[in-house]
Task: inverse folding
């Protein structure tokens, strides 16, 4: 069942990142779109704000879709992990560990959610994409092709 556990993890992470990317790129589900994301980046000192807002939105949206499909899992998870480290450093670290469950005004969320995302992305980087993945299919195709070349060389 091990590969299916990774599949569940990959699908959940893919959905989370694709949804957050859609908020940043398209302004859906209460997101600010590129303009709102850029304004937030400018407020916390990330420049150039608008191009980086577009880049992050694209990376999260496309990365979420790639994770869900299990394509380029190592690279995709690595890039998304990097975005979470930056988010912890630039946004969440000053707010402590816990999320702001009470919704207290002027109090941001801590980094606990980002820590879980970082750990899950690290798991995929170390263990691979699991079952039903583009990466797994690509590896199997390469192995079959190599076996076919080996049979041709030996005359079988």
Result:
């Amino acid at each position: 069942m091990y590969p299916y556990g990774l599949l569940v993890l990959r699908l959940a992470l893919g959905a989370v990142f694709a949804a957050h990317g859609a908020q940043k790129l398209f302004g859906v589900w209460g997101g600010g779109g590129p303009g709102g994301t850029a304004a937030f980046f400018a407020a916390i000192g990330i420049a150039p704000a608008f191009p980086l807002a577009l880049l992050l939105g694209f990376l999260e949206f496309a990365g979420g879709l790639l994770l869900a499909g299990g394509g380029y899992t190592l690279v995709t998870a690595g890039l998304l992990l990097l975005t979470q480290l930056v988010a912890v450093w630039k946004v969440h670290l000053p707010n402590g560990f816990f999320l702001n469950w009470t919704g207290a005004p002027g109090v941001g969320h801590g980094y606990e959610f980002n820590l879980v995302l970082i750990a899950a992305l690290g798991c995929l980087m170390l263990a691979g994409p699991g079952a039903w993945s583009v990466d797994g299919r690509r590896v199997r195709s390469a192995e079959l092709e190599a076996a076919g070349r080996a049979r041709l060389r030996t005359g079988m």
